[in-house]
Amino acid sequence: MKIATFNVNGINGRLPVLLRWLAEAAPDVVCLQELKAPDDKFPAAALSQAGYGAVWQGQKAWNGVAILARGGEPIETRRGLPGEDEDSHSRYIEAAVNGVLIGCLYLPNGNPAPGAKLDYKLRWFERLTAHAADLLATGAPVVLAGDYNVMPTELDVYKPERWVDDALFRPEVRAAFHALVAQGWRDAIRSLHPNERIYTFWDYFRNAFGRNAGLRLDHLLLSPAIASRLTAAGVDQAVRGWDKASDHAPAWIELADVATPARRRGSRKPAKPTEG
């Protein structure tokens, strides 16, 4: 089972990129973020033609999350996190796919920091952590995948000294991520690549992708009930170099059908190494 997360940075504007990647990489489940489209503008028909059922929560011009399932329909179990009823941002959706509970999230950016946006980010992190604890308590196989807008360690950011005051890298934000993982979640990519610089985001400016001046913002966390099934993890970095690409690249994991002690290291293998 291959599960991926991809911040598409505008699903309709990037639809050709998304469809090309789906055809080449053939993930079984995909979590999408930053749809930047209201519900009625979500391209469900095009995705269905590509072989994917979907559930989604859109928002005009901003945010938006979706879960895709190849050859089937995700069974939606939740949209939005508990704990702040007045929060209208479309940032979390949850669905069951082939016996796995998938939580797709788009955590707030938090800049400028300090300030109200950072405060909102930290409150959102607290709500996510509380909900994640409830999910762990069920003992179910769960994957929490998405754009967390945090680089957990210095290994996850190009020139970390330049990011010390940014809301993506501030100590309290990293501490919130580590507190979440400490509940018992497994950071899939980092666990298979403990010492490698792996990025999932490259800014459009200053030739960041060409210089590989990136950030690892997109993470897949696995509950104990599914962590032993992890066999590979990586990033389809070449997708970032395609024409009219998102500033993120898809991150993915592969899970064995049953728990296995044998694990192979993933790689940043592209869907196909060509650039459009």
TrEMBL record:
Q: Where is the Endonuclease/exonuclease/phosphatase domain?
A: 4-248
Recorded GO molecular functions are: DNA binding; double-stranded DNA 3'-5' DNA exonuclease activity; endonuclease activity; metal ion binding
User: Which co-factor is required?
Assistant: Mg(2+); Mn(2+)
Q: Which residues form the active site?
A: Y106, D147 (proton donor/acceptor), H248 (proton acceptor)
Marked site, Important for catalytic activity, at D218
Among PANTHER family, the record links this protein to:
EXODEOXYRIBONUCLEASE III (PTHR43250)
| Keywords (A to Z) from UniProt | Hydrolase, Magnesium, Manganese, Metal-binding
UniProt-listed Pfam families = Exo_endo_phos
Q: Which GO terms describe its biological process?
A: DNA repair
Site feature (Interaction with DNA substrate) residues: H248
Residues annotated as binding Mg(2+) are N7, E34, D147, N149, D247, H248
Please give the InterPro entries that the UniProt record associates with this protein: AP_endonuc_1, AP_endonuclease_F1_BS, AP_endonuclease_F1_CS, Endo/exonu/phosph_ase_sf, Endo/exonuclease/phosphatase, ExoIII-like
Q: What is this protein called?
A: Exodeoxyribonuclease-3
Stored PROSITE patterns: AP_NUCLEASE_F1_1, AP_NUCLEASE_F1_3, AP_NUCLEASE_F1_4
Supply the source organism for this entry. Kaistia soli DSM 19436
Q: Which family does it belong to?
A: Belongs to the DNA repair enzymes AP/ExoA family.
Enumerate the residues marked as the site Transition state stabilizer: N149
Q: Which CDD domains match?
A: ExoIII-like_AP-endo
Report the cofactor remark: Probably binds two magnesium or manganese ions per subunit.
